[in-house]
């Protein structure tokens, strides 16, 4: 059993007791913005907008999802659809409907947060507030380039699980691999939220039983965290839209989303829980 049915079950409860807005639009960066973003080495995202203006972000630079969405795949009947119906695209084994599904999940989650008056704490950084101790083994799922120098400079050993085979780095203390089993023995793990889109979170967590600290970060990590916390994730870090217009403008120009967003960090200890938020509606 993956995390997806648990999240969808919570959103179905939300949809049953509240008037969740329907889908207004999907915002995708145009080709020239995509080119600018890729040249700068930034991720590529889409934004699903609900009729009240709520946005849900999701990563699209995976397989051929970006090009497929731009060609119109999966977009028939999207406008005006139930956000929950779009979220249920996560039940498909692969394809663009999974990307749209996570965007819808994140939009519905943000809508709940706003209606319940919940504002997640601001993160001190973009890397899950990773505490580094010299000599410890740290795992990383995804190649967080700016953090690698910081971890190695602090004297920690780093194992990076990355599916890209073109990345090479032979520095002492750094191990690059595509095998998540090598995360075993790591006491702390920083994980990209892309594992939600490709549904590899549970397989990854199976090799992280030694980790007392497991942070998932990325714009796709805007979902309800209850099911993540129940599986061993200790912190979820995502992107909180503070200015929807500025966020969409940056997205459509291939720019970093910093102007209209901030980073948040929700820790397992201190999370009020879905039931508590639902009771506030």
From TrEMBL:
Xref: Pfam families: DUF364 (PF04016), DUF4213 (PF13938)
Regions crossing the membrane: none
InterPro entries per UniProt: DUF364 (IPR007161), DUF4213 (IPR025251)
Signal peptide range in chain numbering: none
Domain Putative heavy-metal chelation, residue spans: 127-264
Occurrences of domain DUF4213 (ranges): 45-108
Domain of life: Bacteria
Record-given protein name: Uncharacterized protein (DUF4213/DUF364 family)
Species, as recorded: Sphaerotilus montanus
